[in-house]
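Write out the bound-state structure for guanosine-5'-triphosphate.
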Amino acid sequence: MSNTDSDNSKEWAAQAYALLKKRQEEQKQELQKQEEQKQELQKQEEQKQELQKQEEQKQELQKQEEQKQALINSNNLPEPPQTIPETELGEFDDNFTWSAMVLAAQGKNINQISIDEIDWLTKLRRGLEETRKGFVTDLLDKLGDDPLTPESLDDLETLLIRADVGIDSTDKVIRSLRKKLNEEVVGGEEGIKFLKNELKLIIDKPIKNSGTDLLVPQKGKLNVWLLVGVNGVGKTTTLGKLAFLSSRSNYKTLIAAADTFRAAAVEQLKVWGQRSNVDVISNQSKNADPAAVVFDAINSAKKRNVDLLLVDTAGRLQTKNNLMDELAKIKKIIDKKAPDAIVESLLVLDASQGQNGLKQAKSFAKSANLSGAIITKLDGTSRGGVSLAVSEEVNLPIRFIGAGEGIKDLRPFNSYEFVEALLADK
Ligand SMILES: Nc1nc2c(ncn2[C@@H]2O[C@H](COP(=O)(O)OP(=O)(O)OP(=O)(O)O)[C@@H](O)[C@H]2O)c(=O)[nH]1
Ligand SMILES: [Mg+2]
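---
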């Protein structure tokens, strides 16, 4: 975004805010109306029950028996799904304005934007604050309003490396900037704009090469998404968030608990499943074969006409070859049982692990046939720049990013939004 656009965009943001506020008010009124209707129905129901009670006194004994039976059975019933509260519209503040401006700059229609989108962009910008602190603030100081100099490029090089952007990506960006600088005078603001574009090009390259800008399940087919990655990077949490996104977008979704190493893994998944009302296929027995769980899950998915089967796998270390073999076995089962399925192997990477995470990514990419990456924990790390290194050095399209532990803290990756948040000037 340039400053020249910003007045229009601010106006746009104010309009968007008013619209969302109105929409939220209407939703609240609607909810209140529904609540009143519910209460009225409840009252009628209570009166009906009172009458029934009198009539049913004769059958009291039998009824008690039935109730007892129901109570016993209810122990085996799953918990009712938890409803996730709608996101509240926050203040009309700098966060809102920035988020709305980022949406406006992408040509979004004012009627199409949602509170969730604004909320996410706010989270993303806030999440990348630590990365910016050690990078952008210095960068803006150094570039300032003055034209770029060869010295400021040296500083920029150091800053990019420090933000874990990686040597290859940094080289690429600095080379382009140097070339531009040789040809013309580049002002500070123009320099930032050029830098943003260069970073975006790096991130977009593997996405463009994949032929798929936005990863969504294909309707009418079984889509199987495997989540792989080392211990604790956020596979299970990410899967829970994906299940929510998917079921909320009306894809019939199912979860396969193929992490059979960790005893608590299935329970953890069931909690996520309940939150978004998605079933979990598991095998509770000790040392169950993960491939067998996937086998059962595919059967179930076919029977239920599932659109998206999400497979949670164990945290595996690249040094333990048997774990890699297991992943291969899971893939073989999928190929055999569901040859028409569209399979995505998504590597989950913890941004806070910086270059270390990148090493893992490289070794995973070698042994597992990966098709994309999901970057997690972008909130509160100073190493958000590693996303660029993933794109440049591992050549994987980033499909989703996570910035928080909540169910809504994951969104499809959007390079424009990411770069704007990474280089936001406040
Ligand atoms: N702050 C933050 N924490 C996250 C995010 N994603 C996951 N976590 C946390 O990271 C921790 C590990 O997450 P899990 O989802 O259990 O990781 P995992 O890869 O499944 O771990 P294993 O199954 O043990 O290999 C949990 O405490 C999560 O809440 C994120 O985007 N932001
Ligand atoms: Mg897990």
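---
The beta strands are 223-228, 253-258, 279-281, 308-313, 342-350, 372-376, 398-402, 410-412.
Residues 173 and 195 are 7 Å apart (CA to CA).
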